[in-house]
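Sharing a chain and its predicted structure for anyone who wants a worked example. Both blocks are below, sequence first, tokens second.
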Amino acid sequence: MKEIDARGLACPAPVLQTKAAVEAVNPDLIKVIVDNEASKQNVCRFLKSQNFDTDVQKDGMDFYVIGKREAGISSKDSTEERVKADTKKIMVMLATDRMGYGDDELGLKLMISYIKTLKEMGSELWRLVFVNNGVKLTIEGSEVLPVLKAYEKEGLHILVCGTCLTHFDLLDQKQVGETTNMLDIVTAMQLADKVISI
């Protein structure tokens, strides 16, 4: 079994260490020790993307993420995301819960309108990514939460920065999207045909 002790490491270091180990050793069994919820979720999601079945055990403040896969099964092709190459892929990254500067109330109204109007992109809207103050749009009480949940139900992939949620102490209040890390965000940027940042 390959074991990685990633306690005390900030995002995305636990996922990067896990990725490096999977690429170098290609283990059938791996254990990754982390000490926060966001890292646990990120490592689990990465391992699942690499054909591992995951199990999580908690010991005090630590999480033991154990990934297993059948012998001889390899990682998924990293180009899997390019299957729909004929459709343009637009990633929208929201780093704030307000649009523009000047009047916060107006900025919030504009952001709500913007998010509701994103559906006009149709199938080209490929990823919606929330970072920094933007993660506040994904939590309990957000005025756009019903819209975001509808987008997700229709198949839009929504990523929410785990480091940002942890910074604002909002991890438990997130209601939509996948808790993610910088590796996932950078990878999404590479795969997107266009990135729009707000």
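Comments welcome. Confidence is low (pLDDT under 50) at residues 77-84.
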